Amino acid sequence: MCGIIGYTGKSDAKDIMLDALELLEYRGYDSAGIALLSKEGTQICKRAGRVKDLRDLCAQKNLVGSCGIGHTRWATHGGVCDENAHPHRFGKVTLIHNGIIENYRELVERYHLQGKLSSETDSEVVAAVLEHFYTGDPYSAIRRTVLKLKGTFALAILFDDQPEKIYAVRNVSPIVAAVTTDGAMLSSDVAAIVPFTADYFVMPEFHVVCLSKDGAQMFDLAGDHVEIEWLKVDWDVSRSSKGGYPFFMEKEIMEQPKVVGDTVLSRIRNGKPDFSKEGVPDHILADCQRICVIACGTAMHAGLVGKSLIQAMIGIHVDVVMASEFMYNDPVVDSDTLVIAISQSGETIDTLEALKFARKCGSPSISVVNVKGASIARASEYVIYTCAGPEIAVASTKAYTTQLAVLYLLTARMAMARGLWSEEETLGYMSELSRVPEVMEKVLSQKDEIHRLAGTIINARDVFMIGRGLDYSILLEGSLKLKEVSYIHSEAYASGELKHGTIALITEDTPVIAVVTQEKLKSKELSNIREVQSRGARVLLLIKEDEKLEDDKRFANVFRLPVMEDAFMVMPASITLQLIAYFVSLDKGLDVDKPRNLAKVVTVE
Ligand code: M6R
């Protein structure tokens, strides 16, 4: 959470940073600020509100300098107000911080900071401790400070008497850095760097990087010089713009046929799933006795689909655990448990910590990650990258379906590795998987009809979504999407559970969305729908287009999904639910891409 940016070079740092903060705003958008270091000293401009508000404030000031740091905040310690916005300054030190300093109260006492701080943040305390240790040697001050900190941090630091230099250090929270044609930059993710260069590096934890207009240098905490490992961004800058759409969420929904196709097709060889480029050996797929998927939010919902697929097709037990709960339930993972960590950002701290724990228990691990070089990718034994490209909208859409694509591929490879499928079965499954992009296009071509359907729930206070088995998993994600971007309370309910209490909440004012895509569950699902209709509920039904309904008049609306084999119906159904959520949010006039209180990358526990 929180976006950080730093630039030092020959250009005007203010404009570069404001543009970059706009690109990073999806990481947190409570407040924003910049600091510029120049011969005239350090100037800070910050405020609660969005980056556009900061831009207005900056325009009223005469800010000059070609070296600076900037921040967009998702509040953790201290409310949303101008004082708590970053950068924070103490003495000669000015910094921005992403993360949480757990022992900040102890530090306040230890360094007698009571009454000396001007904000309620843990971050300002770090500035004060740095100032305490600073005697002209930034490395020494950083080293001594870092050793006192407990928690997570990505820090970018200016010292008044170190002109044109930005120092950075991190633990867990990410920082990437790059050398550009006229200077050097750092950021919490590559989105802000990619307009300037495709070459970047991920800062290792507990290393100090110094950026100057001549480039970047890196040292370990002992002060020894460390070689930088360079990476290349493999998407171009146009992919992080809205491309003519009003919101990134719509653009990202529309990109799905392409990115799912890229994720799948690059891993098919001779018609079969192939992870040789990733180096994933068949034995870890063949030997494991059980699987544990760890993930949060949408990524966890992808895991639930994976569980249904693997249990049905491979016949081994799969647990899907919310990463934020993993550590608190005495997890039982061992060398026979293949751990699959799923994360778009690759930085979600709960998932990262759970993965590290599982590895300590001896579990083999594969991560499914979208952002190249992210912490989760580096912490796992093997990584399979989704080819979603940059996902900017806070609500995840294309990351979800590309994660599903990887899980479909993994299931097939696992079946092959275990000798469970004939050649014909494998080829048949893969050819159905290859149809997903074309089926998605078909759904997207009905965007206007889906927009109309969204209009039927826009005024609801609560929406229930019901289904069984795989349909229920689809709805968990559909419901999260609706809640997240429209602020309509919605619950996905396993339709067989309704009678155990929740049906009490169904009235004629409660729209119900039902998904029926699984032949073996159809008759039970349709009976469950009757039960809510008997209580007056208006039902929007999502069902395969070749399905005959005896009495479709009893449904308020029916949306026909293009037909795939049952196991793949998740794809057309999910994309439909994403569009419903999107249009509700759009028509309510909400900030679709930046729903209140959320942030794209959750790097605090
Ligand atoms: O980056 P990750 O995939 O690890 O993020 C996990 C969740 O925070 C994320 O999926 C979240 O639930 C989305 N905002 C949902 O749209």
Biggest sheet features: 8 strands, antiparallel
Please tally the β strands and state the result.
26
Indicate the proportion of strand residues: 15-25%
Can you count the helices? 19
Q: List the uncertain runs.
A: none
- Give the helix/strand class: alpha/beta
Bound compounds: 5-amino-5-deoxy-1-O-phosphono-D-mannitol
Shape: globular
Mean pLDDT, rounded to whole units? 94
Give the fraction of residues assigned to helices. Answer: 25-40%
Distance between the ends: 11 Å
Largest sheet: spatial strand order: 3-2-4-1-10-9-11-14
Rg for CA atoms: 25 Å
Account of the protein in words:
- The chain is α/β, with parallel strands linked by helices and 605 residues long.
- It is built from 19 helices and 26 strands.
- Helix 1 packs antiparallel against helix 2.
- It is globular.
- The N and C termini lie close together (11 Å).
- The structure holds 5-amino-5-deoxy-1-O-phosphono-D-mannitol.
